[in-house]
Amino acid sequence: MDASVLKQKDSRWAMILILGLLVTGVWDALFLNKPALRFVVSGFFNTICVALLVVVFTLIFAWIVTLVLNYLESHNRRASYMLVTFLLNTIRSVPQVVGILFGYIAVGIMLQNGIIRGALPVFPLLAVSISVFVFIEFVDLMRERIAHYKKLDFYNAMQVCGISESRIINIDILWKNSRIHIFNKLISVFGAAIFLQCSVDFIISVGLSTDVNATALPATMGSMLANIDSKQDVLAIGYALTHPLYVGNLFFEHLQGLTVAFLIVFLLVCTFHIANGYAQRHRL
Amino acid sequence: MINDQFSVQVYSHSRPIVTVDSYEVPRDQITFLFGESGIGKSMISKAIYGLLDGDELDISVNGKKYSDYLKETKTAEIKKNSFFVFQEPSSHLNPLLNISSQLREGSLALSDAEQEIMMRLWRGTDENAVKRILDVFPKPYRPSGGEKQRILLAMAFKKIDVFLQTKTSDSPSYFVFDEPTGSLDNTYRNLFIRLLFQCYQTKPFTVTIITHDYSVISELYTKYTPLLDVIHLKELRRSKGAAVELVDFSADDYLTWLDKSKPVISASGAQQPVLTMAPHFKIFGRKLCLYGDAAHSREKTLVINKGEMAYVKAPSGVGKTTLAKVILGLYKSRESDLTISGIAINENTPQKKLAKKIWGKRAGMVFQHADESLDLQSSVGETFAGLPLTPALNRESIKNKLHELFEQPLSEAFLSKKVAFLSGGQKQRLNLLRTLALGTDLIILDEPLNGLDFVSVKKVLELLAEKQKQGAALLMISHNEEIFDHFVDPQNIYYLAETA
């Protein structure tokens, strides 16, 4: 690999992420018992899968709503514009975790009533519940980009050349001139999706229901952290703080909880640095 | 005459930005530096002056590392003695200090000629106007562009005053004026030149004036003939890739060309109006009016027939670009009454109708700033994508269009080149060609000669004459009054002014 690639902060942190995951995987394969390993692997991939779906849905929702708002604004549909803005602001006013919690409850009820079965439809539904409370920030970004280019001669100059508004917005502004900003935001959305997922899964698993997560929702890192074994492992980390000689045991005897806690923190830290590095590289 | 010779190489991440092997700065003389926008005039001047960031760019001057060049006594003295007037005055002014404090910062405080300089740059008519400006904290819209530019010039003149008080025979200086009159009309430009030359005649110093304003040549050759021996006209030309060379610019070429230029008479469309507009309109709470004379005594309806070019004159900031945007329906003006190719346009005309019948179909506009008007992330070829032409332009027809203003042969690679990597002059030509490719009845041109070298200026004007002959009606907005006074029939010159 070209060494200069690693001079870029985002590439360096992406590499750290991959290496960290590989080392964790190898260590767990060697020292974690097989049922727990399967549990951790499935929790990790489920979490990543939902987070990626959140990214996709967020992008789709935001792009559509941005176009709708732009259309309503430029065609002077004041009432419709106000209505859509009001709905968006209503969603914005709901704390993200609370909103997502209700989405999860709805999915849980659907599962319990047999409306949906298996993991396949659950993943997109969970992702939609998160996306609904994340995509508005994305709409703001896209609208800021459009407003920026409308202030310049860019928009008018293209318009009076007879270039269609949809081409100017979709291709020239959002795709060609904003995709770096959009991609940077998507990295952050990925991190936010992991964080929100873990938070909500943890809350559901610990306190709100005794049967929804355990029986129906796919295991994620959040729900695994709430699992009794992991909780004991996490408590062991606290114990090791006051009994340093116990630290060595953590890596062999408390691996499930340690792995899950590490993966959550490690993913978030790496995502943060990748997004930051990407922004620095492209001078956003 | 002693010439200071420089070789300058500027690279960014191993990519050459600009290189020049032999760049002469005649010591204690005045150089007017022409050349297309983006070719490297400012960058070379900044490198010599010592203003570039050696951490961001790989720079060498006269074969020395930039850090070593900056340590040289002579470079340090140049920086101490001289002044650099930046092209964009806003970037020079500190928004947190009022103008009077900025005019007295550092060594500028040593000059007591501030009042006199300010009065002269403000035409010496209104002392209160000058006082009002001094209390202002710079913001995007206050002072105006023209005022900001004159404030920077005032700073430079104060520095010149300080330098002349202490100058010895071997004191090095390098006063650079980068597009110092871009926002000034000819009256203020001439005031600046007169003041500069008066200072120069007290004691000579080294001056470089970077400009695209070729009409300054006529001013020099009519009013300052005794100084012509110490005035040098130079042009920076691209030789290969990022390499440029400094060559003499022939004043005769320009003056002869101008002398021979005359308005195009089109036989094809006499008295077939393409644009008509009543003289009065209201916009942004202001009343504007078009007149047929410079004294603003005779209101005149704007009428452009097929094959005609009309020219709108007004000082900077009055609303020439606003007028163009009103005509195209981009700004909704009150009480405007206009038609384009028989289609009436007013404040109630819906955008849908404009998009369907006017924009790109009957009328097009070349905007002032190519950098803003073009999609810099597109390739040259993609710039023509999406135009309402049937059939759409293919690569071959795009090449044919480009041949009208670009040097031949054009490679396929040029079509794929990102617009962001073109020079300013190339962008401006591309900006023009995109609109001209539409073949609309009316073409509005807002400062179409911005950033072009003389060869391109001539090519653009030939192309516009060709369009006129084909029946296009042109509405010209430009600071290059001297050029367009020759190219436009005096009957088609309009004066825009604000009315009470």
Summarize the structure.
The complex is a heterodimer of chains A (284) and B (500). By secondary structure, chain A is mainly alpha-helical. Helix content of chain A is 83%, strand content 0%.
Terminal CA distance of chain B reads 55 Å
**Mind describing the biggest β-sheet of chain B?**
10 strands, mixed
* Largest interface (C-beta under 8 Å): A-B, 21 and 29 residues
Q: Which band does the percent of strand residues of chain B land in?
A: 15-25%
Shape of chain B: globular
Gyration radius of chain B (Cα, Å) is 24 Å
| Helix amount of chain A | over 70%
- SSE succession of chain A: HHHHHHHHHHHHHH
Number of helices of chain A: 14
**Helix/sheet category of chain B:** alpha/beta
Averaging pLDDT over every residue of chain A, what do you get? 88
The separation of the N and C termini of chain A measures 27 Å
Radius of gyration of chain A: 22 Å
Question: What percentage of the residues of chain A does DSSP assign to strands (E)?
Answer: under 5%
- Uncertain stretches of 5 or more adjacent residues of chain B: none
What summary fits the major beta sheet of chain A? Answer: none
- The mean pLDDT of chain B is 91
Based on secondary structure, the structural category of chain A is: mainly alpha
